[in-house]
Amino acid sequence: AGVGRAGAGNLQFLPAGNGSEWRREPLRERAYGWEASARGRRLAAGVSGNLETLGYYAADVCIGSPGSLHQLIIDTGSSMTAVPCATCTKCGRHKNPKYDPHHSATAQPLKCKSPPYRMRCSRCEANHCGYAVSYTEGSQIRGAVYTDEVHFGDGGAAFTERMVIGCQTYETGLFKGQIADGIMGISATRSGGLASPTPIDRLVEEGRIQNTFAFCLSDRKGMLVLGGAVRASRAHEVNWMPLREQKFYALSLRDIQIGGRSFGVDRRQYHSTIIDTGTTFLYLPPAAYRQLRDSFTRSCPWGNCLSRKHRTRYNDEYCYAMTDAERDAFAPLSLVFDHGDPLELTPREYTYQIKSTSPQGMAVRCLASFDNRHAGVVLGAAVLRNREVILDRTSRRVGFVRADCAAMEPSDSILENNTYLSNGCRRKSATGSRRVLGEETLPEVGEGEGVEVGVSAPELGAAT
Q: How many CB atoms lie within 10 A of CB 436?
């Protein structure tokens, strides 16, 4: 079940799905252009989610007028926002009622001719732009595209802005089984055939925010803020690193060390190190993964690792019963980049808990890393915990600051003058919008087989 309603600005960590098995593969083709291979509580500034049940971090988002609440996975590896449509009979059972554009006074269908925001609409149905996305692990979504007002901030700082919304009439695989209603992509660039702008793109275009955002994840919740500038009084705290390419939030990793000992892997194996909140764990190239796995399974603080082994359904999952003190006695993991200080991961950050603490103080924890099966590194949500991660999209850099993400509110962020997603759907009207909607009849959004827009690019990724 879900973890309850998010507060403003908060992210939640949610279990993976309604009884479905959550597989942890990063959706490589979706965002990274690599070859395909086999695999909380608050984010309205808050994000919800947790690693114990192998889920994802999601935010409550208010869409339309009057507003309807939808819980969306926050994904730095994709660019589209999409929710199940009210007419969908082939969608899963999710946390909230489906989005109904006919019940929103501000919803507008995206017409095929001259779509706004420099988007592309290569295939249409009844002059209504559609989308279809396929994923490496087999999931598919498709539907029709609308624009509608999304709510931000609270109180006197509340406003709405028009965003691109995918209204899904078909879901399969992980999208159908997940509890979260949909997804919100906040990638570095537009992706896929539709070239949809992210909410951050739209807010920047309309002059609402500076081109920055930050997120902070704990074991069970977190925070997402949009816009703002680094507080001058705290600028010295930020460990800045340049982003190495335009397409992704990618860093130049040159070495990985465990307990100060280098893995000795050719740095070309780390050629692109991606920050992806839509992936749960740390994915390493085979040679680096084997070294981390062997260190974890052969250097247990209690001696014989096998004496505490906990079996799971996966052969590549390495789990042991341990106390917190024993967990903390494992060697620290260091990610060494070309610029900035190393990213130091404590054992708590490169492991995750799957069984609660027993009366004897024992909990089952597993290695939060898996074999990427080829070159390239994915920094998933697990290893991004306990830091505020700042994406400065104007200066093309990312910053890391140690933080208590479980307790963080938007006012605590290192970015001052920020805003955040609002879950204030009880407001009767969409105030603060810069746009006035004309009278227009919305076309019916059918189920059918959907329409395909552009290439069948694996653009949207469920958090895995």
A: 6
β-bridge pairing 159-171 and 81-84: parallel
User: 331, 330, 325, 329: which is closest to 361 by C-alpha?
Assistant: 325
Instruction: Return averaged pLDDT per consecutive 10 residues of the chain, 464 residues in all.
Output: 43 53 37 28 51 70 95 89 94 95 96 90 86 73 94 92 95 89 91 87 97 94 95 97 91 97 97 90 96 97 95 90 96 97 97 83 94 94 96 97 94 96 62 33 34 27 33
Are 285 and 377 a contacting pair, CB within 8 Å?
yes
Six-digit token string for 441: 């009849």
CA-based max dimension of the chain? 72
Can you name the residues that pair with 108 across neighbouring β-strands? 147
Helices (H) and strands (E) in the chain, counts: 5, 31
Q: Does 410 sit behind a cis peptide bond, omega within 30 degrees of 0 on the bond before it?
A: no
Close Cβ partners of 280 (under 8 Å, ≥ 6 residues apart): 24, 51, 54, 55, 56, 368, 380, 381, 382, 463, 464
Length of the chain: 464
Q: Are 227 and 220 in contact (CB under 8 A)?
A: no
Query: Distance (Å, rounded) from C-alpha 381 to C-alpha 368?
Result: 10
| C-alpha to C-alpha distance for 464 and 243, rounded to whole angstroms | 23
pLDDT attached to residue 31: 32
Gap between the Cα atoms of 153 and 237, Å rounded: 26
What proportions of the chain, in percent to the nearest 5, are helix, strand and coil?
15, 35, 55
What pLDDT is recorded for position 407? Answer: 93
pTM of the model: 0.84
The number of angstroms, rounded, from the C-alpha of 190 to the middle of its chain's C-alpha atoms is 15
Helices (H), 95-213: 173-177, 199-205
List the alpha helices (DSSP H) in 141-262: 173-177, 199-205
367 exposed, middle or buried (CB, 10 Å; 0-12, 13-18, 19+)? buried
Amino acid at 313: R
Return the H-helix or E-strand segment holding 292. helix 286-298
**CA proximity to 241, closest of 19, 390, 132:** 390
What 3-state class would DSSP assign to 378? strand
**Unique residue bearing structure tokens 């490169």:** 350
Nearest residue to 8 via CA among 427, 435, 461? 427
Q: Identify the CA nearest to 286 among candidates 266, 303, 302.
A: 266
- Whether the CB-CB separation of 172 and 138 falls below 8 Å is answered with yes
Of 429, 356, 370, the C-alpha closest to 159 is 429
Q: What is the dihedral of CA 399, 404, 410, 415, to 10 degrees?
A: -20
